[in-house]
Amino acid sequence: MDQLQPYLHQANMRLSRFSLLVYLEQITRINKVYICLVTYFFFSISIFFEIFAPVSTGILAFYYPVYAFLSAYGADDLEELKEWGLYLGLLGLWTITENRGVLGIIPFYFVLKSVLVGWLIFGKGMNQVSASLRPHIYLLFRDQKKKQ
C-alpha cells in the first residue's frame, strides 16, 4: 500500500480543482480519490453490462455540464457559458436522435456514448467542437435575422 501513496497524493492534488469533490470530501470525510474510484466502478459496471446504462450515461452527460453551466452563469464567464450552452444544445439534439430507437440497437452503444461524452466534457473535445461549429451557428442565426 505504501507504493500507492505517491499516486494517491498526486490524484488527490489533481482532483482538488473540482469544488464539488472538495465539498463531498468535507461532508463525508472520504478521500476524493476513493469517491471517484467507487463512482467510476459503478458507472463502468452499469454501462458495460447495460444495467441502467441509459440512466448512467444520462447522468454523466447531463448533470456535470448543467453544474458547470450554472457555475459559469454565476461567475459571468461568457466564454464558458457559450461552450456549455453549445454542449447542452448538442446534447438535446443527440437525445432526440437517441430516443428514436436507432442508436440503442448498436452493440456497446452506451460504452461508446460514455467515452464520447467523457472526451467532450473532460478532454479538449468541446473546444474543438465549439471552434468548428460556432462560425456555422453564427451564420445560421445571422441569416435568420435578415429574413425577419
Write up this protein.
It is a single chain. With 148 residues, the protein is mostly helical. It has 2 domains: 1-49, no CATH class; 53-148, no CATH class. Helices cover 80% and strands 0% of the residues. The protein has 7 helices and no strands. Helix 4 packs antiparallel against helix 5, helix 4 runs parallel beside helix 6 (109-122) and helix 6 crosses helix 7. It is globular and about 65 Å long. The model has no long low-confidence stretch (mean pLDDT 79).
C-alpha termini separation: 67 Å
- The tally of structural domains comes to 2
What share of residues are in beta strands? under 5%
- Helix/sheet category: mainly alpha
In angstroms, what is the radius of gyration?
Answer: 18 Å
| SSE order | HHHHHHH
Low-pLDDT residue intervals, each spanning 5 or more residues: none
Instruction: State the share of residues found in helices, binned by percent.
Output: over 70%
Indicate the overall shape: globular
Biggest sheet record? none
Count the DSSP helices: 7
Number of strands: 0
Mean pLDDT: 79
Give a short synopsis of this structure.
This protein is mainly alpha-helical.
Features:
single chain; 148 residues; mainly alpha; 2 domains; 7 helices; 80% helix
Q: What topology emerges from the helices and strands here?
A:
Elements: H1 5-15, H2 19-28, H3 32-48, H4 53-74, H5 78-99, H6 109-122, H7 125-147
Helix pairs in contact: 3-4, 4-5, 4-6, 6-7
